[in-house]
Amino acid sequence: MKVSDYIVEFLIDRGIEHVFGYPGGMVTHLMDSFSKYQDQISAHVTYHEQGAAFAACGYAQISGKTGIAYATSGPGATNLITGICNAYMDSIPTVFITGQVNSFEQKENMNVRQRGFQETDIVSMVSQCTKYSARVNSPELIKYELEKAFFIANEGRKGPVLLDVAMDVTRGDIEPGKLQPYNVQKEIKKSIDKATLKNIEKEIKSAQRPVLVIGNGLERKDKNFEYIKSMGIPVVSSMLAVDCAAGLENYYGFIGAYGDRTANFIVAKSDLVIAVGSRLDIRQVGAKRMNFAPTANLIRIDIDTGELEYKVHNDELPVVADSELAIEQISEVFENQKDKYNNWISICEEIKCKLFGMDNRLPNQFVSKISEYIDGESVITTDVGQNQVWVAQSFNLKVGQRILFSGGHGAMGYSLPAAIGACYGANKKVYSFNGDGGIQMNIQELQTVCRDKLPVKIFVFNNNALGMIRHFQEMYFNNNFFQTVDEGGFSSPNFEGIAGAYGLKYYCISKIGQVDAVKEALNDDYPCLFEIKINENTYVFPKLEFGKPNQDQEPLIDRNLFEELMRL
To answer: The whole model's pTM is what?
Structure first.
Protein backbone atom coordinates (compact mmCIF):
# COMPACT_ATOMS: atom_id res chain seq x y z
CA MET A 1 0.00 0.00 0.00
CA LYS A 2 1.20 3.52 -0.78
CA VAL A 3 2.04 5.55 2.35
CA SER A 4 -0.02 8.59 1.29
CA ASP A 5 -3.05 6.29 0.84
CA TYR A 6 -2.41 4.87 4.31
CA ILE A 7 -2.38 8.38 5.81
CA VAL A 8 -5.75 9.21 4.25
CA GLU A 9 -7.31 5.91 5.36
CA PHE A 10 -5.94 6.50 8.85
CA LEU A 11 -7.75 9.87 9.01
CA ILE A 12 -10.98 8.35 7.70
CA ASP A 13 -10.82 5.57 10.31
CA ARG A 14 -10.73 8.26 13.01
CA GLY A 15 -13.87 9.96 11.77
CA ILE A 16 -12.20 12.91 10.08
CA GLU A 17 -14.45 14.15 7.28
CA HIS A 18 -12.79 17.44 6.35
CA VAL A 19 -9.16 18.52 6.10
CA PHE A 20 -7.65 21.80 4.92
CA GLY A 21 -4.50 22.60 3.01
CA TYR A 22 -2.72 24.15 0.08
CA PRO A 23 -1.04 22.40 -2.88
CA GLY A 24 2.73 22.13 -3.06
CA GLY A 25 5.38 19.92 -4.57
CA MET A 26 6.17 17.91 -1.44
CA VAL A 27 2.50 17.03 -0.75
CA THR A 28 1.43 16.07 -4.26
CA HIS A 29 1.24 12.37 -3.39
CA LEU A 30 -0.93 13.19 -0.36
CA MET A 31 -3.18 15.37 -2.54
CA ASP A 32 -3.48 12.55 -5.06
CA SER A 33 -4.49 10.15 -2.30
CA PHE A 34 -7.15 12.52 -1.00
CA SER A 35 -8.62 12.56 -4.51
CA LYS A 36 -9.06 8.75 -4.39
CA TYR A 37 -11.22 8.94 -1.25
CA GLN A 38 -13.40 11.95 -2.05
CA ASP A 39 -16.57 10.09 -1.13
CA GLN A 40 -15.26 9.60 2.43
CA ILE A 41 -13.14 12.66 3.20
CA SER A 42 -12.98 16.15 1.69
CA ALA A 43 -9.71 18.03 1.29
CA HIS A 44 -10.52 21.73 1.03
CA VAL A 45 -8.12 24.12 -0.67
CA THR A 46 -7.70 27.42 1.14
CA TYR A 47 -5.80 30.31 -0.41
CA HIS A 48 -3.09 30.61 2.21
CA GLU A 49 -1.63 27.99 4.52
CA GLN A 50 -2.45 30.16 7.53
CA GLY A 51 -6.07 30.00 6.44
CA ALA A 52 -5.83 26.19 6.38
CA ALA A 53 -4.37 26.14 9.89
CA PHE A 54 -7.11 28.37 11.32
CA ALA A 55 -9.77 26.35 9.47
CA ALA A 56 -8.40 23.19 11.12
CA CYS A 57 -8.69 24.96 14.48
CA GLY A 58 -12.30 25.96 13.84
CA TYR A 59 -13.16 22.45 12.67
CA ALA A 60 -11.69 20.90 15.81
CA GLN A 61 -13.21 23.46 18.18
CA ILE A 62 -16.74 22.88 16.93
CA SER A 63 -16.73 19.19 15.96
CA GLY A 64 -14.78 17.74 18.87
CA LYS A 65 -12.65 15.86 16.34
CA THR A 66 -8.99 16.37 15.55
CA GLY A 67 -8.35 19.21 13.11
CA ILE A 68 -6.07 18.45 10.16
CA ALA A 69 -4.10 20.86 7.96
CA TYR A 70 -1.38 20.10 5.44
CA ALA A 71 1.19 22.13 3.53
CA THR A 72 4.33 21.67 1.52
CA SER A 73 7.87 22.22 2.78
CA GLY A 74 9.58 25.56 3.29
CA PRO A 75 7.22 28.55 3.04
CA GLY A 76 4.17 26.28 3.05
CA ALA A 77 5.19 24.83 6.40
CA THR A 78 6.25 28.14 7.94
CA ASN A 79 2.93 29.72 6.92
CA LEU A 80 1.19 27.22 9.21
CA ILE A 81 3.02 28.38 12.32
CA THR A 82 0.62 31.14 13.41
CA GLY A 83 -2.26 28.64 13.34
CA ILE A 84 -0.14 26.07 15.16
CA CYS A 85 0.58 28.62 17.90
CA ASN A 86 -3.13 29.39 18.11
CA ALA A 87 -3.93 25.70 18.63
CA TYR A 88 -1.22 25.43 21.27
CA MET A 89 -2.32 28.44 23.34
CA ASP A 90 -6.02 27.56 23.20
CA SER A 91 -5.62 23.78 23.66
CA ILE A 92 -7.08 22.73 20.31
CA PRO A 93 -6.44 19.10 19.21
CA THR A 94 -4.85 19.37 15.77
CA VAL A 95 -2.42 17.42 13.61
CA PHE A 96 -0.41 19.34 11.02
CA ILE A 97 1.16 17.36 8.19
CA THR A 98 3.96 19.02 6.26
CA GLY A 99 5.76 17.71 3.25
CA GLN A 100 9.54 17.64 3.34
CA VAL A 101 12.14 17.19 0.61
CA ASN A 102 13.24 13.65 -0.14
CA SER A 103 15.28 12.12 2.65
CA PHE A 104 18.30 11.82 0.35
CA GLU A 105 18.13 15.59 -0.33
CA GLN A 106 18.08 16.67 3.32
CA LYS A 107 21.11 18.43 4.73
CA GLU A 108 21.18 16.29 7.92
CA ASN A 109 24.34 17.38 9.79
CA MET A 110 25.94 19.22 6.89
CA ASN A 111 27.04 22.76 7.71
CA VAL A 112 24.86 24.35 5.02
CA ARG A 113 21.68 26.34 5.36
CA GLN A 114 19.77 24.21 2.91
CA ARG A 115 20.43 21.33 0.56
CA GLY A 116 17.09 20.62 -1.09
CA PHE A 117 14.86 23.29 -2.67
CA GLN A 118 12.44 24.66 -0.03
CA GLU A 119 14.07 22.49 2.64
CA THR A 120 13.34 23.97 6.07
CA ASP A 121 13.68 22.43 9.52
CA ILE A 122 10.04 22.96 10.52
CA VAL A 123 10.27 20.39 13.33
CA SER A 124 12.77 22.51 15.26
CA MET A 125 10.85 25.70 14.53
CA VAL A 126 7.61 24.44 16.06
CA SER A 127 9.14 22.52 18.96
CA GLN A 128 8.12 25.24 21.43
CA CYS A 129 4.50 25.54 20.21
CA THR A 130 3.51 21.90 19.75
CA LYS A 131 2.96 19.03 22.15
CA TYR A 132 5.03 16.83 19.83
CA SER A 133 6.77 17.27 16.49
CA ALA A 134 8.74 14.74 14.46
CA ARG A 135 10.18 14.12 11.02
CA VAL A 136 9.17 10.87 9.34
CA ASN A 137 12.02 9.64 7.15
CA SER A 138 11.02 5.98 6.95
CA PRO A 139 7.79 4.51 5.50
CA GLU A 140 7.82 1.83 8.21
CA LEU A 141 7.35 4.49 10.91
CA ILE A 142 4.16 6.02 9.50
CA LYS A 143 1.70 4.01 11.63
CA TYR A 144 3.70 4.59 14.82
CA GLU A 145 3.98 8.33 14.26
CA LEU A 146 0.33 8.83 13.24
CA GLU A 147 -0.98 6.90 16.24
CA LYS A 148 1.38 8.78 18.53
CA ALA A 149 0.37 12.12 17.03
CA PHE A 150 -3.35 11.55 17.51
CA PHE A 151 -2.89 10.27 21.05
CA ILE A 152 -0.73 13.19 22.16
CA ALA A 153 -2.94 15.80 20.49
CA ASN A 154 -5.97 14.57 22.44
CA GLU A 155 -4.67 13.42 25.82
CA GLY A 156 -4.56 15.65 28.89
CA ARG A 157 -4.47 19.30 27.91
CA LYS A 158 -5.09 19.06 24.19
CA GLY A 159 -3.04 20.78 21.55
CA PRO A 160 -1.21 20.61 18.21
CA VAL A 161 1.20 18.03 16.85
CA LEU A 162 3.25 18.28 13.65
CA LEU A 163 4.52 15.46 11.45
CA ASP A 164 7.03 16.38 8.75
CA VAL A 165 6.95 13.65 6.11
CA ALA A 166 9.64 13.31 3.46
CA MET A 167 8.36 13.08 -0.12
CA ASP A 168 10.01 9.71 -0.75
CA VAL A 169 8.17 8.42 2.33
CA THR A 170 4.74 9.53 1.10
CA ARG A 171 5.27 7.77 -2.24
CA GLY A 172 6.80 4.68 -0.63
CA ASP A 173 5.16 1.26 -0.37
CA ILE A 174 4.33 -0.49 2.91
CA GLU A 175 2.63 -3.61 4.20
CA PRO A 176 0.19 -2.19 6.79
CA GLY A 177 -0.02 -5.44 8.73
CA LYS A 178 3.71 -5.39 9.42
CA LEU A 179 3.94 -1.77 10.61
CA GLN A 180 5.05 -0.99 14.14
CA PRO A 181 2.20 0.45 16.24
CA TYR A 182 2.44 3.07 18.94
CA ASN A 183 1.72 1.63 22.35
CA VAL A 184 -1.28 3.79 23.16
CA GLN A 185 -2.23 3.47 26.79
CA LYS A 186 -5.84 4.26 27.54
CA GLU A 187 -6.02 7.66 29.13
CA ILE A 188 -7.38 7.51 32.67
CA LYS A 189 -8.96 10.85 33.42
CA LYS A 190 -7.94 12.16 36.79
CA SER A 191 -10.61 13.01 39.36
CA ILE A 192 -10.11 14.93 42.61
CA ASP A 193 -8.64 12.59 45.21
CA LYS A 194 -10.57 11.99 48.44
CA ALA A 195 -8.30 13.98 50.73
CA THR A 196 -8.35 17.05 48.47
CA LEU A 197 -12.09 16.75 47.96
CA LYS A 198 -12.54 16.75 51.72
CA ASN A 199 -10.57 20.01 51.95
CA ILE A 200 -12.71 21.52 49.18
CA GLU A 201 -15.86 20.41 50.95
CA LYS A 202 -14.65 22.13 54.13
CA GLU A 203 -14.03 25.37 52.23
CA ILE A 204 -17.45 25.23 50.59
CA LYS A 205 -19.31 24.64 53.83
CA SER A 206 -17.64 27.60 55.53
CA ALA A 207 -18.14 29.99 52.58
CA GLN A 208 -20.95 32.52 52.50
CA ARG A 209 -20.13 34.10 49.13
CA PRO A 210 -18.72 31.46 46.76
CA VAL A 211 -18.32 32.06 43.05
CA LEU A 212 -17.44 29.63 40.26
CA VAL A 213 -15.05 30.70 37.49
CA ILE A 214 -15.27 28.50 34.40
CA GLY A 215 -12.61 28.53 31.70
CA ASN A 216 -11.98 27.21 28.22
CA GLY A 217 -10.76 23.92 29.71
CA LEU A 218 -14.35 22.89 30.47
CA GLU A 219 -15.95 21.17 27.49
CA ARG A 220 -19.29 22.44 26.21
CA LYS A 221 -21.50 19.51 27.16
CA ASP A 222 -25.07 19.46 28.40
CA LYS A 223 -24.15 17.47 31.49
CA ASN A 224 -21.46 20.00 32.46
CA PHE A 225 -24.05 22.75 32.14
CA GLU A 226 -26.38 20.80 34.42
CA TYR A 227 -23.63 20.30 37.01
CA ILE A 228 -22.95 24.05 37.06
CA LYS A 229 -26.63 24.88 37.22
CA SER A 230 -27.20 22.51 40.15
CA MET A 231 -24.68 24.36 42.36
CA GLY A 232 -26.93 27.38 42.74
CA ILE A 233 -24.02 29.84 43.10
CA PRO A 234 -22.92 32.85 41.02
CA VAL A 235 -20.97 31.88 37.92
CA VAL A 236 -18.51 33.96 35.91
CA SER A 237 -16.17 32.89 33.14
CA SER A 238 -13.08 33.69 31.14
CA MET A 239 -13.79 35.39 27.82
CA LEU A 240 -13.20 32.17 25.89
CA ALA A 241 -15.81 30.34 27.95
CA VAL A 242 -18.75 32.74 27.66
CA ASP A 243 -20.65 30.12 25.67
CA CYS A 244 -20.29 27.55 28.48
CA ALA A 245 -22.94 29.33 30.50
CA ALA A 246 -25.41 30.49 27.83
CA GLY A 247 -28.89 30.43 29.37
CA LEU A 248 -27.66 30.01 32.95
CA GLU A 249 -29.71 32.10 35.37
CA ASN A 250 -26.85 32.81 37.77
CA TYR A 251 -24.30 33.77 35.09
CA TYR A 252 -22.87 37.29 35.43
CA GLY A 253 -20.46 37.59 32.52
CA PHE A 254 -16.74 37.22 31.94
CA ILE A 255 -14.03 38.57 34.18
CA GLY A 256 -10.88 40.54 33.53
CA ALA A 257 -9.46 43.68 31.99
CA TYR A 258 -12.23 44.03 29.40
CA GLY A 259 -14.75 41.95 31.33
CA ASP A 260 -18.16 42.76 32.74
CA ARG A 261 -18.10 45.16 35.66
CA THR A 262 -20.67 43.00 37.44
CA ALA A 263 -18.53 39.86 37.14
CA ASN A 264 -15.46 41.69 38.43
CA PHE A 265 -17.32 43.16 41.41
CA ILE A 266 -18.78 39.77 42.33
CA VAL A 267 -15.34 38.15 42.36
CA ALA A 268 -13.94 41.05 44.39
CA LYS A 269 -16.66 40.59 47.03
CA SER A 270 -16.52 36.79 47.21
CA ASP A 271 -15.05 34.73 50.05
CA LEU A 272 -14.39 31.61 47.96
CA VAL A 273 -13.40 31.37 44.27
CA ILE A 274 -13.38 27.98 42.57
CA ALA A 275 -11.71 28.21 39.15
CA VAL A 276 -12.15 25.25 36.80
CA GLY A 277 -10.16 24.99 33.57
CA SER A 278 -9.14 28.65 33.57
CA ARG A 279 -5.52 29.83 33.40
CA LEU A 280 -6.24 32.99 35.41
CA ASP A 281 -3.70 34.97 33.42
CA ILE A 282 -2.99 38.71 33.61
CA ARG A 283 -5.94 39.59 31.34
CA GLN A 284 -8.23 37.78 33.79
CA VAL A 285 -6.82 38.66 37.22
CA GLY A 286 -4.86 41.88 36.62
CA ALA A 287 -1.17 42.73 36.82
CA LYS A 288 -1.11 42.56 40.63
CA ARG A 289 -2.32 39.01 41.03
CA MET A 290 -2.94 39.25 44.78
CA ASN A 291 -5.56 41.97 44.06
CA PHE A 292 -7.77 39.32 42.49
CA ALA A 293 -10.51 38.24 44.92
CA PRO A 294 -8.41 39.67 47.79
CA THR A 295 -10.66 38.42 50.63
CA ALA A 296 -11.42 35.03 49.09
CA ASN A 297 -9.92 31.61 49.45
CA LEU A 298 -8.93 30.34 46.01
CA ILE A 299 -9.25 26.81 44.66
CA ARG A 300 -7.75 26.26 41.21
CA ILE A 301 -8.53 23.11 39.22
CA ASP A 302 -6.58 22.41 36.04
CA ILE A 303 -5.27 19.39 34.16
CA ASP A 304 -2.02 21.23 33.35
CA THR A 305 0.29 21.25 36.36
CA GLY A 306 2.37 23.98 34.76
CA GLU A 307 -0.50 26.46 34.91
CA LEU A 308 -0.90 25.82 38.64
CA GLU A 309 2.72 26.76 39.24
CA TYR A 310 1.88 30.35 38.25
CA LYS A 311 0.13 31.28 41.47
CA VAL A 312 -2.48 33.96 42.03
CA HIS A 313 -2.61 33.67 45.83
CA ASN A 314 0.28 32.25 47.81
CA ASP A 315 -2.11 30.17 49.91
CA GLU A 316 -4.35 28.94 47.07
CA LEU A 317 -5.31 25.27 46.79
CA PRO A 318 -4.03 23.80 43.48
CA VAL A 319 -5.88 20.73 42.23
CA VAL A 320 -4.72 18.65 39.26
CA ALA A 321 -7.82 17.05 37.79
CA ASP A 322 -9.91 16.68 34.66
CA SER A 323 -12.38 19.57 34.59
CA GLU A 324 -15.39 17.45 33.69
CA LEU A 325 -14.86 15.00 36.54
CA ALA A 326 -14.05 17.85 38.93
CA ILE A 327 -17.18 19.83 38.13
CA GLU A 328 -19.30 16.75 38.80
CA GLN A 329 -17.62 16.11 42.15
CA ILE A 330 -17.94 19.72 43.26
CA SER A 331 -21.59 19.91 42.23
CA GLU A 332 -22.31 16.99 44.57
CA VAL A 333 -20.79 18.91 47.48
CA PHE A 334 -23.02 21.91 46.71
CA GLU A 335 -26.12 19.77 46.35
CA ASN A 336 -27.48 20.50 49.84
CA GLN A 337 -26.18 24.07 50.10
CA LYS A 338 -28.43 25.93 47.64
CA ASP A 339 -30.73 27.86 49.98
CA LYS A 340 -27.71 29.06 51.91
CA TYR A 341 -26.75 31.46 49.12
CA ASN A 342 -30.07 33.25 48.50
CA ASN A 343 -28.82 36.47 50.10
CA TRP A 344 -25.55 36.32 48.15
CA ILE A 345 -27.46 35.86 44.88
CA SER A 346 -29.62 38.88 45.79
CA ILE A 347 -26.48 40.99 46.25
CA CYS A 348 -25.17 39.85 42.87
CA GLU A 349 -28.49 40.80 41.26
CA GLU A 350 -28.37 44.23 42.90
CA ILE A 351 -24.85 44.83 41.58
CA LYS A 352 -25.99 43.77 38.12
CA CYS A 353 -29.00 46.07 38.26
CA LYS A 354 -27.03 49.13 39.39
CA LEU A 355 -24.39 48.66 36.66
CA PHE A 356 -26.76 47.68 33.83
CA GLY A 357 -26.19 49.45 30.51
CA MET A 358 -23.30 51.54 31.78
CA ASP A 359 -20.97 50.57 28.90
CA ASN A 360 -23.53 50.07 26.14
CA ARG A 361 -21.94 52.04 23.32
CA LEU A 362 -22.79 52.02 19.62
CA PRO A 363 -20.68 48.99 18.56
CA ASN A 364 -22.08 47.00 21.50
CA GLN A 365 -25.59 47.97 20.40
CA PHE A 366 -24.87 46.71 16.88
CA VAL A 367 -23.68 43.35 18.24
CA SER A 368 -26.67 43.02 20.56
CA LYS A 369 -29.14 43.85 17.78
CA ILE A 370 -27.55 41.47 15.28
CA SER A 371 -27.62 38.67 17.86
CA GLU A 372 -31.41 38.97 18.09
CA TYR A 373 -31.73 37.65 14.54
CA ILE A 374 -29.17 34.86 14.71
CA ASP A 375 -30.73 31.43 15.13
CA GLY A 376 -30.02 29.22 18.09
CA GLU A 377 -27.48 26.42 17.51
CA SER A 378 -25.45 28.74 15.27
CA VAL A 379 -21.70 29.24 15.49
CA ILE A 380 -20.08 32.65 15.92
CA THR A 381 -16.42 33.43 15.31
CA THR A 382 -14.62 36.64 16.20
CA ASP A 383 -11.36 38.13 15.13
CA VAL A 384 -8.93 39.92 17.45
CA GLY A 385 -9.26 43.56 18.43
CA GLN A 386 -12.21 45.64 19.47
CA ASN A 387 -14.72 43.48 17.57
CA GLN A 388 -13.75 40.47 19.67
CA VAL A 389 -14.49 42.20 22.96
CA TRP A 390 -17.71 43.80 21.70
CA VAL A 391 -19.00 40.34 20.76
CA ALA A 392 -17.92 38.83 24.08
CA GLN A 393 -19.58 41.66 25.98
CA SER A 394 -22.81 42.16 24.06
CA PHE A 395 -23.76 39.11 21.99
CA ASN A 396 -26.92 37.76 23.60
CA LEU A 397 -26.18 34.05 23.48
CA LYS A 398 -28.95 31.53 23.05
CA VAL A 399 -28.71 28.02 24.45
CA GLY A 400 -26.70 25.86 22.06
CA GLN A 401 -24.81 28.68 20.36
CA ARG A 402 -21.01 28.61 20.30
CA ILE A 403 -18.51 31.45 20.08
CA LEU A 404 -14.98 30.71 18.91
CA PHE A 405 -12.12 33.05 19.79
CA SER A 406 -8.40 33.23 19.23
CA GLY A 407 -7.62 33.71 22.89
CA GLY A 408 -4.11 33.19 24.18
CA HIS A 409 -2.32 33.80 20.88
CA GLY A 410 -4.71 36.60 19.88
CA ALA A 411 -4.21 36.22 16.13
CA MET A 412 -5.77 38.75 13.78
CA GLY A 413 -7.04 36.97 10.69
CA TYR A 414 -8.50 34.07 12.69
CA SER A 415 -12.24 34.69 12.34
CA LEU A 416 -12.88 34.09 8.64
CA PRO A 417 -10.89 30.85 8.11
CA ALA A 418 -12.02 29.53 11.51
CA ALA A 419 -15.59 30.14 10.36
CA ILE A 420 -14.90 28.02 7.29
CA GLY A 421 -13.62 25.14 9.40
CA ALA A 422 -16.49 25.50 11.86
CA CYS A 423 -19.02 25.52 9.03
CA TYR A 424 -17.77 22.15 7.83
CA GLY A 425 -17.39 20.83 11.37
CA ALA A 426 -20.90 21.75 12.48
CA ASN A 427 -22.76 21.76 9.15
CA LYS A 428 -24.45 24.97 10.28
CA LYS A 429 -24.49 28.65 9.45
CA VAL A 430 -21.56 30.54 10.88
CA TYR A 431 -21.37 34.25 11.68
CA SER A 432 -17.89 35.69 11.35
CA PHE A 433 -17.21 39.02 13.11
CA ASN A 434 -14.18 41.03 11.98
CA GLY A 435 -12.59 44.44 12.15
CA ASP A 436 -11.52 46.31 9.03
CA GLY A 437 -7.91 45.50 9.95
CA GLY A 438 -8.20 41.82 10.84
CA ILE A 439 -10.33 40.87 7.84
CA GLN A 440 -7.46 41.90 5.58
CA MET A 441 -5.10 39.41 7.23
CA ASN A 442 -6.86 36.47 5.52
CA ILE A 443 -9.21 38.26 3.14
CA GLN A 444 -8.30 35.76 0.42
CA GLU A 445 -10.46 33.16 2.17
CA LEU A 446 -13.54 34.99 0.89
CA GLN A 447 -12.83 32.97 -2.25
CA THR A 448 -13.10 29.72 -0.25
CA VAL A 449 -16.47 30.84 1.11
CA CYS A 450 -17.79 31.81 -2.34
CA ARG A 451 -16.31 28.84 -4.19
CA ASP A 452 -17.93 26.37 -1.82
CA LYS A 453 -21.12 28.44 -1.37
CA LEU A 454 -20.79 28.22 2.40
CA PRO A 455 -23.51 29.74 4.61
CA VAL A 456 -21.01 32.05 6.29
CA LYS A 457 -22.13 35.57 7.16
CA ILE A 458 -19.23 37.99 7.38
CA PHE A 459 -19.47 41.20 9.42
CA VAL A 460 -16.83 43.89 9.05
CA PHE A 461 -16.86 46.62 11.69
CA ASN A 462 -15.32 49.44 9.68
CA ASN A 463 -14.11 52.32 11.84
CA ASN A 464 -11.28 53.10 9.38
CA ALA A 465 -8.73 52.42 12.10
CA LEU A 466 -6.90 49.77 14.04
CA GLY A 467 -9.13 50.74 16.92
CA MET A 468 -7.55 48.88 19.83
CA ILE A 469 -4.07 50.29 19.17
CA ARG A 470 -5.47 53.72 18.29
CA HIS A 471 -6.99 53.77 21.78
CA PHE A 472 -3.60 52.87 23.31
CA GLN A 473 -2.01 55.73 21.39
CA GLU A 474 -4.67 58.10 22.70
CA MET A 475 -4.01 56.97 26.27
CA TYR A 476 -0.24 56.64 26.33
CA PHE A 477 1.28 58.35 23.25
CA ASN A 478 -0.27 61.82 23.23
CA ASN A 479 -2.63 61.06 20.32
CA ASN A 480 0.18 60.10 17.94
CA PHE A 481 -1.94 57.85 15.71
CA PHE A 482 0.96 56.58 13.61
CA GLN A 483 0.00 53.60 11.39
CA THR A 484 -3.46 53.15 12.95
CA VAL A 485 -5.68 55.70 11.14
CA ASP A 486 -5.95 57.00 7.60
CA GLU A 487 -3.87 60.10 8.29
CA GLY A 488 -1.21 57.96 9.99
CA GLY A 489 -0.68 55.47 7.18
CA PHE A 490 -3.46 52.90 7.66
CA SER A 491 -6.39 52.61 5.27
CA SER A 492 -9.18 50.19 4.41
CA PRO A 493 -10.39 49.08 0.97
CA ASN A 494 -13.79 49.56 -0.60
CA PHE A 495 -15.53 46.59 0.98
CA GLU A 496 -18.49 46.80 -1.38
CA GLY A 497 -16.05 46.46 -4.27
CA ILE A 498 -14.30 43.59 -2.48
CA ALA A 499 -17.63 41.79 -2.04
CA GLY A 500 -18.44 42.30 -5.70
CA ALA A 501 -15.08 40.94 -6.80
CA TYR A 502 -15.68 37.74 -4.84
CA GLY A 503 -19.33 37.44 -5.88
CA LEU A 504 -20.69 38.07 -2.40
CA LYS A 505 -23.97 39.72 -1.56
CA TYR A 506 -23.25 42.98 0.25
CA TYR A 507 -25.15 45.15 2.71
CA CYS A 508 -24.02 48.38 4.34
CA ILE A 509 -25.29 49.19 7.83
CA SER A 510 -24.61 52.52 9.52
CA LYS A 511 -27.60 52.79 11.88
CA ILE A 512 -29.03 50.37 14.42
CA GLY A 513 -32.44 50.46 12.76
CA GLN A 514 -30.98 49.17 9.50
CA VAL A 515 -30.28 45.78 11.07
CA ASP A 516 -34.01 45.00 10.93
CA ALA A 517 -33.97 45.41 7.16
CA VAL A 518 -31.36 42.68 6.65
CA LYS A 519 -32.84 40.04 8.94
CA GLU A 520 -33.71 37.76 6.01
CA ALA A 521 -30.16 37.94 4.65
CA LEU A 522 -28.90 37.07 8.14
CA ASN A 523 -30.74 33.77 8.06
CA ASP A 524 -30.69 32.55 4.46
CA ASP A 525 -28.22 29.92 3.31
CA TYR A 526 -25.99 32.15 1.18
CA PRO A 527 -22.67 33.79 1.97
CA CYS A 528 -22.91 37.51 2.53
CA LEU A 529 -20.76 40.44 3.65
CA PHE A 530 -22.21 43.06 5.98
CA GLU A 531 -20.18 46.22 6.38
CA ILE A 532 -20.99 48.03 9.61
CA LYS A 533 -19.77 51.59 9.21
CA ILE A 534 -18.93 53.40 12.43
CA ASN A 535 -18.12 57.04 11.83
CA GLU A 536 -16.72 57.82 15.24
CA ASN A 537 -13.72 56.92 17.34
CA THR A 538 -14.35 53.54 18.92
CA TYR A 539 -13.36 52.25 22.32
CA VAL A 540 -13.59 49.08 24.34
CA PHE A 541 -15.07 49.91 27.70
CA PRO A 542 -14.90 48.97 30.44
CA LYS A 543 -11.10 48.77 30.33
CA LEU A 544 -8.74 48.15 33.23
CA GLU A 545 -5.87 50.51 33.80
CA PHE A 546 -2.65 48.59 34.40
CA GLY A 547 -2.10 47.78 38.08
CA LYS A 548 -5.62 48.56 39.32
CA PRO A 549 -7.99 45.96 40.82
CA ASN A 550 -10.40 44.41 38.32
CA GLN A 551 -13.54 46.01 39.68
CA ASP A 552 -12.21 49.57 39.23
CA GLN A 553 -12.30 49.79 35.45
CA GLU A 554 -12.22 52.83 33.16
CA PRO A 555 -14.15 54.98 32.73
CA LEU A 556 -14.39 55.14 36.50
CA ILE A 557 -17.86 54.87 37.92
CA ASP A 558 -19.14 57.43 40.42
CA ARG A 559 -17.11 57.00 43.61
CA ASN A 560 -20.21 56.97 45.80
CA LEU A 561 -21.66 54.15 43.73
CA PHE A 562 -18.34 52.30 43.85
CA GLU A 563 -18.22 52.48 47.65
CA GLU A 564 -21.87 51.48 47.88
CA LEU A 565 -21.27 48.35 45.81
CA MET A 566 -18.20 47.44 47.81
CA ARG A 567 -20.20 47.71 51.06
CA LEU A 568 -22.95 45.34 49.91
So the answer is: 0.96
